[in-house]
Design goal:
The complex is a heterodimer of chains A (346) and B (282). With 346 residues, chain A is of the alpha/beta class. Chain A has 2 domains: 39-128 and 256-283, D-Maltodextrin-Binding Protein, domain 2 (3-Layer(aba) Sandwich); 132-255 and 315-344, 3-Layer(aba) Sandwich (D-Maltodextrin-Binding Protein, domain 2). Chain A has 16 helices and 12 strands. Chain A has helices at 2-27, 51-69, 82-90, 103-111, 124-127, 149-152, 168-184, 189-201, 210-219, 230-239, 263-269, 272-280, 285-293, 301-306, 325-334, 339-344, and strands at 39-46, 72-78, 97-99, 130-139, 159-160, 203-205, 225-229, 244-247, 251-255, 259-261, 297-298, 316-318. In chain A, the strands form 2 sheets. In chain A, strands 4, 5, 6, 7, 8, 9, 11 and 12 form an 8-stranded mixed sheet that branches. In chain A, α2 runs antiparallel to α13 (285-293) and α7 (168-184) packs across α8. The model of chain A is unreliable at 20-35 (pLDDT under 50). Chain B is mainly alpha-helical and 282 residues long. In chain B, 79% of the residues lie in helices and 0% in strands. Chain B has helices at 3-8, 15-41, 46-53, 56-89, 95-101, 104-107, 110-121, 126-133, 142-167, 170-178, 183-212, 215-221, 232-241, 247-280. The radius of gyration of chain B is 23 Å and the shape is globular. Chain B starts with a helix and ends with a helix.
Chain lengths: 346, 282
């Protein structure tokens, strides 16, 4: 009897301690080992297509940091879908800096209280050291003669673009087309809706994200044209120079992938200064050139003009502000039962 | 008859300890996460909840998910039985290799499986080109969803059947034949009743896996609202991935998905109990 009772107590104790242990685990984090060991560690949480760029940039920055401070720095990279990367930071991923696709994703982290407000003005150009825009990737020879948004609504043209309801990036594809229609029809909303409806009528496969859409177009050979980010289209072009061509439409949208220090984590890890250095250094000529080589448009005008052969510098670009900012644009166009649902289910 | 005597009757030691660990693990890994889904979905008012889950795209997604998962589970039962049968009953070169390959769909990351399948079955792919000639569209259709679900569900059926088949004495079939039963009759009245409970277990597992599947399905389905190829897990991810992160909406749909799965699995186990009673002849 006694032995039984004892066992019961042990069992209960174990259950309680497992619970307690897991709760405690949530509270305490690691980090904080930064300054004293002589090596600074920095975690940069970024998104998918920046992998090659930041691998090269980290090396460049580490050399600069060593020269400047005499300390070595080790940078950990993390890549994934921009939205889910932001969520992971909110849910406890110990990022010192974030370099994400859209300002909105960083705003979500700010709203969770991890980034101090005003981050958008902390670095030049809305804290976006490089930008990108929406372009078309077509098959070699461009048989369907696709030159502008107009050509995408022609009969017999099949378009690949991800679902704006599941991919933040895909919303920009829609907005670029919408802005084009706005200019073309002089703000006649009925005509604009019809334009958007016929465009999405031509969409053959709507993937869940940019990654899937690229696979569908490039690997599975579906569709005549892929609406894509310029940096990703150029990357696909570099990999398959004989299979695709890039077409820049007359009008597009400028995206500003922004960067920010995650203050809460950086303060705790004692990396605030290093993080600031890391992000400011993105604006130097060397780093800007590196961004250009990795197919992001440098924000530095002088460096950008060096890449006139890579980017079409004549394209007229709107920004998200033309739609009243991201939250407004999302609420107007992509929330349930708004414009996108309306034109798609016509 | 005191409590003391009752307790000492237990043959295996350590009931208290193992039960304690079980309860702790169950709470940490299953009950607490499920409860959080429940609380999140209760952030919506009842009207909002109903409005959300009766939206046409949500209703359609439930039909697609359950329909495709049912179809895939049935296909898996046929092929799984066939597969388990040759693995257990016949000796042939490469049998062990084939046996080891059964679990591969578990080991492969589901998105890798999805991308590979979508490529093979697209109209430009090796198998899809052939199907296209027959006028069948595989990738980017509901058929594609079923293909992906068959792929991820087959191990469940095979592994559920194998041990039962191994224990099933071959002389049962011989006896049946001696007594004058034909092959089909023997299969239907002698073998199948013995296998039915295990087959239903495999069916239920494959079904449950298919209903909730995300990774392998989204690359091959095409996710078209118009063509009804969005699955429920895709709708849930839409709620989480898009510009405004909607945890409540996602949790509400997940809750209904859980209920649907639970109901289906409950039905399967009801059939299983009935089948078990029949074979035991009581």
């Amino acid at each position: 009897m006694k032995k039984e009772a004892l066992k019961k107590w042990i069992a209960m104790g174990m259950a309680v301690s497992v619970l307690a242990g897991s709760l405690a685990g949530c509270g305490g984090g690691d980090g904080g080992e930064a300054e004293d060991s002589g090596t600074v560690t920095l975690t940069n949480v970024s998104y998918d297509p920046t992998r090659e760029f930041y691998e090269a940039y980290n090396q460049l920055f580490a050399e600069h940091y060593q020269e400047e401070t005499g300390k070595s720095i080790e940078i950990t990279q993390s890549h994934g879908g921009s939205g889910s990367q932001a969520r992971s930071v909110i849910e406890g991923n110990e990022a010192d800096v974030v370099t994400l696709a859209l300002a909105h994703d960083i705003t979500l982290i700010e709203e969770a209280g991890l980034i101090e407000s005003g981050w958008l003005d902390e670095f030049e150009g809305n804290s976006a050291p490089y930008t990108s825009t929406i372009v078309f990737l077509v098959r070699k020879g461009n048989e369907k003669k696709i030159a502008d948004w107009d050509d995408l609504i022609k009969e017999g043209v099949s378009v690949i673009t991800p679902d704006p309801k599941s991919s933040g990036g895909a919303c920009w594809n829609f907005l670029a087309a919408w802005y084009y229609a706005d200019q073309k029809f002089g703000g006649d909303e009925a005509a604009m809706k019809e334009f958007a409806a016929s465009l999405y009528d031509n969409v053959l496969v709507m993937d869940s994200g940019a990654r899937g859409a690229t696979t569908t177009f490039v690997e599975n050979g579906q569709g005549d044209v892929l609406i894509a980010w310029e940096n990703e289209a150029l990357l696909a072009l570099k990999e398959y120079p004989d299979e695709f061509e890039l077409v820049t439409p007359s009008i597009s949208i400028k995206a500003e992938p922004s960067v920010a220090i995650v203050d809460e984590n950086a303060d705790k890890n004692g990396t605030q200064e290093a993080a600031k250095d890391y992000l400011s250094f993105l604006y130097t000529k060397e780093a800007q050139r590196l961004a250009g080589e990795n197919f992001y448009r440098p924000s530095d005008e002088a460096v950008l003009s060096e890449f006139g052969g890579v980017f079409d510098l004549d394209v007229e670009m709107c920004t998200i502000d033309d739609f009243g900012g991201w939250d407004q644009a999302y609420a107007d166009f992509f929330a349930d039962d708004t414009i996108f649902d309306e034109i798609y289910n016509q | 008859m005191t409590g003391k005597k009752q307790k000492s009757k237990r043959v295996l030691p350590g009931f208290g300890l193992t039960m304690g660990i079980t309860v702790a693990m169950l709470s940490l890994l299953i009950l607490i996460p499920l409860a959080s889904i429940l609380t999140y979905s209760f952030h919506l008012s009842f009207d909002e909840f109903i409005a959300l889950i009766t939206r046409p795209n949500v209703r359609q997604a439930f039909l697609t998910s359950t329909g495709c998962a049912l179809a895939a589970a049935v296909i898996n039962c046929v092929f799984g039985l066939n597969l388990a049968w040759i693995l257990v009953r016949y000796e042939f070169p490469g049998r062990r290799l084939m046996d080891a390959m059964i679990e591969l769909p578990f080991a492969l990351p589901t998105s890798v499986a999805g991308i590979t399948l979508s490529r093979m079955y697209s109209d430009q792919g090796v198998l899809g080109r052939f199907l296209q000639g027959l006028g069948i569209k595989a990738s980017y259709s509901r058929l594609g969803i079923v293909i992906a679900m068959v792929f991820i569900g087959i191990p469940f059926v095979v592994r559920a059947l194998q041990p039962v088949l191994e224990k099933l004495p071959e002389n049962l079939e011989e006896a049946s034949e001696m007594l004058g039963a034909g092959r089909i009759y023997t299969f239907r009245r002698v073998i199948l009743p013995e296998l039915l409970p295990a087959l239903l277990t495999g069916f239920g597992l494959a079904l449950a896996r298919g209903i909730g599947e995300y990774g392998s399905v989204i690359y091959i389905s095409g996710n078209s609202e118009k063509e009804g190829t969005q699955v429920v897990s895709y709708i849930i991810m839409q709620k989480l991935n898009s510009g405004s992160v909607d945890y409540e909406g996602a949790a509400a749909i997940a809750l209904v998905l859980l209920l649907v799965s639970f109901l289906l699995l409950f039905l399967v186990s009801m059939v299983q109990i009935a089948a078990g009673r029949r074979t035991r002849g009581s």
